[in-house]
Specification:
This is Retrotransposon Copia-like N-terminal domain-containing protein. There is one protein chain. With 199 residues, this protein is mainly alpha-helical. The chain folds into two domains: 2-92, no CATH class; 96-181. It is 63% helix and 0% strand. It contains ten helices and no strands. It has helices at 2-18, 25-31, 41-54, 75-92, 96-104, 113-129, 136-145, 152-159, 167-181, 189-198.
Length: 199
């Protein structure tokens, strides 16, 4: 009697596991149409997470459903589903090397400090989302390098510290500096000459 019960249990588990849903790439890309870029991380993350949870696939990405043994009856289905999601992730996120390049070449230009920092943070969030988190020192260094010469005094002061500030602390300092100096570029040579001539 117990043997039959055990057999039925094994068969039941096999059937349940063997019917684990798998999805083709067109199906996933039709349901999650947003491709991750520099401006839509929150939207992309929300839609992707909602899809994975709704289809009982989130366990493939959060580590709760690790790779099955090759002898496991569900191994082939696990492998197909895992590779499908892997291919989807490659198609739905940008190339990480390009994002790193964008972060390291970031420049404030004519943007406000708030806009500039948001752009830098977006790059960092995007890299974190694809498994390449940015260290605070790397993020802060990239921001300091792109601020521009009008922030040179503040940059020098910050770089003289034993430890660079956290991003949140850097943001506060930059916003205060901007408000006190109006973040206006220094007068150029031609402007200075014109001003001197008129006086």
């Amino acid at each position: 009697m117990s043997t039959n019960s055990s057999t039925e249990s094994i068969v039941s588990e096999t059937v349940t596991t063997a019917t684990e849903p798998t999805f083709s790439i067109p199906t996933i890309t039709n349901l999650v149409t947003v491709k991750l870029n520099n401006d839509n991380f929150l939207l992309w993350s929300h839609l992707t997470e909602a899809f994975l949870i709704g289809q009982n696939l989130y366990k493939f990405v959060d580590g709760l459903y690790p790779c099955r043994a090759i002898t496991d009856p569900s191994y082939n289905i696990w492998l197909r589903t895992d590779k499908t999601l892997e291919y989807f992730s490659q198609r739905s996120v940008p190339n990480s090397s390009q994002i790193w390049r964008n972060l390291n070449e970031i420049s404030r230009g004519t943007h406000t400090v708030s806009e500039y920092l948001q752009e830098a943070k977006t790059y960092a969030d995007t890299l974190a989302a694809i498994g390449e988190p940015v260290k605070n020192t790397d993020l802060v260094n990239a921001i300091l390098c792109g601020l521009g010469f009008e922030y040179e005094m503040l940059i020098t002061a910050l770089e003289s510290l034993k430890t660079l500030p956290q991003f949140s602390a850097l943001r506060s300092r930059l916003l205060i500096y901007e408000s006190r100096h109006h973040a206006s570029p220094p007068l150029g040579p031609s402007t200075l000459l014109a001003s001197h001539a008129s006086s």
